Amino acid sequence: MDILVTLGRTLGFSLAAGVNLYATVALVGLAARYGWVALPAQFQVFDNPWIIGGAAVLYTVEFFADKIPWVDTIWDAVHTFVRPVGGALIAVAALGEASPTVEGLVALLGGAVAAGSHATKASTRVAANASPEPFSNWALSLIEDVFVVALGVITLKYPLIALGASAAILLAMILAVRWIWRWLRRPAFAR
Questions:
Q1: What is the pTM of this model?
Q2: What distance lies between CA 62 and its chain's CA centroid?
Q3: Residue 30 dihedral angles phi and psi, to the nearest 5°
Q4: Do 148 and 24 meet the contact criterion of CB atoms below 8 Å apart?
Q5: Nearest to 92 by CA among 2, 170, 14
């Protein structure tokens, strides 16, 4: 059961980090600091006031940058390198003590999951920026904020539910990419 709980936290936090790393880190840090839920000792790494404060400040910057069309695309482009690394680090922190091989594998898993959710977010935002009105961009940004907080809270309180939800979201992302790839490979006259 502990393996499934750890996997639920790993996938849930990594998936959330790919969408908004700073909100995820701030949420985990606040939960560890104030004991909102019983977390394993390895989550104390997020308990530092500097980490919580830095994540909160960067989340505030991202909150506003994410609402401005094309600024959000630039922000996402920069974070193409940041979010997967953050997802990998959160995944390793969720793991606790393990062999270097297991830590490496979990880092790869967390980084890949964060990269996948980041790519989904960034590509959706580019498509939304093509519309002339700003409301779809604002709505997407607010939905992402709610998604990250909701998934973070579920991951903290109910890691087994987070495991199922994360697996379903990842499967949906894979199926969507597969469908898009097949559509793009069809001849132009068949589209």
A1: 0.90
A2: 14
A3: -65, -40
A4: yes
A5: 14
Contacts of 139 (CB under 8 A, 6+ apart): none
Ramachandran bin of 68, using left for φ above 0, alpha for ψ from -120 to 50, beta for the remaining angles: beta
The torsion of the CA quartet 63, 110, 178, 144, rounded to 10 degrees, works out to: -20
Under a CB-based contact definition with an 8 Å cutoff, are residues 89 and 51 in contact?
A: no
92 within 8 A of 106, measured Cβ to Cβ: yes
pLDDT band at 190 (very low <50, low <70, confident <90, very high): low
Q: Where are the domains of the chain?
A: 2-190
Q: Rounded to an integer, what distance in angstroms lies between the CA atom of residue 138 and that of residue 27? A: 22
Q: What CA–CA distance (Å, rounded) separates 183 from 157?
A: 39
The pLDDT, as a whole number, for residue 31 is 93
Q: CA torsion angle for 101, 106, 111, 114 (degrees, to 10)?
A: 180
Contact of 46 with 86, CB cutoff 8 Å:
no
Of the candidates 11, 3, 137, 22, the one whose C-alpha atom is nearest the C-alpha of residue 72 is 137
- pLDDT, tens digit (0-9, with 9 covering 90-100), for 140-173: 999 999 999 999 999 999 999 999 999 999 999 9
pLDDT tens digits for 106-117? 999 999 999 999
Contact indicator for 117, 12 with CB cutoff of 8 Å? no
